[in-house]
């Protein structure tokens, strides 16, 4: 499985925006965006250049892709799926990304970050509808039930993250049984991603 293995704080600095890729660290003064608000690299402190139309569109796409931890090919595949769905393509794209298993695990509060959620899923710590699920990119649908595997309910990473954040409105979490259900796929107002998705559509439509 292809994945980004570099320093994730560099990604936030490149976008000059907190993407919340390191869990609780992002909410402290140790956050790289707070400490070094410059683009990484030897020319990071150089005078900022005026962005072109393409550059603005590219940054919007990169922000969304990095926010969800999705590589280029997978993101392009999601865009094709979004185009085929009825409705607004940009909102469909974000809805697809939100329905990934690793994102749902994060939104339910079972992991401190999406990166941690992805690792927990790969290590067989979760089930979907009672069956083992170890592929982070599984797309969930309305009514699907995500649960912490029976042998993982005391896992330190899960227990520590469990009550750290509120659960997304489109999900229902049963804390007593450590399970969550997808009530519905999220609307745009339910997604707290600060990105103009129409710019992504414009970029892919060229």
In short:
The protein has 206 residues and is of the alpha+beta class.
What does this protein structure show overall?
The chain is 39% helix and 8% strand. The protein has helices spanning 8-15, 32-35, 53-68, 72-84, 89-98, 101-107, 114-122, 156-161, 197-204, and strands at 126-128, 131-132, 145-148, 171-174, 179-182.
What attributes characterize this protein structure?
single chain; 206 residues; alpha+beta; five-stranded antiparallel β-sheet; 9 helices; 8% strand; globular; ribosomal protein; S4_RNA-bd
Write the layout of secondary structure elements.
Blueprint: H1 8-15, H2 32-35, H3 53-68, H4 72-84, H5 89-98, H6 101-107, H7 114-122, E1 126-128, E2 131-132, E3 145-148, H8 156-161, E4 171-174, E5 179-182, H9 197-204
Antiparallel strand pairs: 1-2, 1-3, 3-5, 4-5
Helix pairs in contact: 3-9, 4-5, 5-9, 6-7
């Amino acid at each position: 499985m292809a994945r980004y293995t570099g320093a994730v704080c560099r990604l936030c600095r490149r976008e000059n925006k907190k993407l919340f890729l390191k869990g609780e660290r992002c909410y402290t003064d140790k956050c790289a965006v707070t400490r070094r608000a410059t683009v990484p690299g030897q020319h990071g402190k150089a005078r900022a250049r005026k962005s072109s139309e393409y550059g603005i569109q590219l940054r919007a796409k990169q922000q969304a892709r990095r926010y969800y931890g999705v590589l280029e090919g997978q993101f392009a595949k999601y865009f094709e799926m979004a185009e085929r769905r009825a409705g607004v393509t940009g909102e469909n794209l974000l809805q697809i990304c939100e329905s990934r298993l690793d994102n749902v695990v994060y939104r339910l509060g079972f992991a401190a970050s999406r990166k941690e959620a992805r690792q927990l899923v790969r290590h067989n710590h979760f089930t979907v509808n009672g069956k083992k699920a170890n592929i982070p990119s599984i797309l969930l649908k309305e009514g699907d039930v995500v649960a912490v595997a029976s042998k993982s309910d005391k896992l330190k990473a899960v227990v520590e993250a469990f009550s750290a954040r509120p659960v997304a409105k489109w999900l229902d979490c049963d804390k007593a049984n450590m399970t969550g259900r997808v009530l519905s796929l999220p609307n745009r107002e339910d997604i707290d991603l600060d990105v103009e998705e129409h710019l992504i559509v414009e970029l892919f439509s060229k």
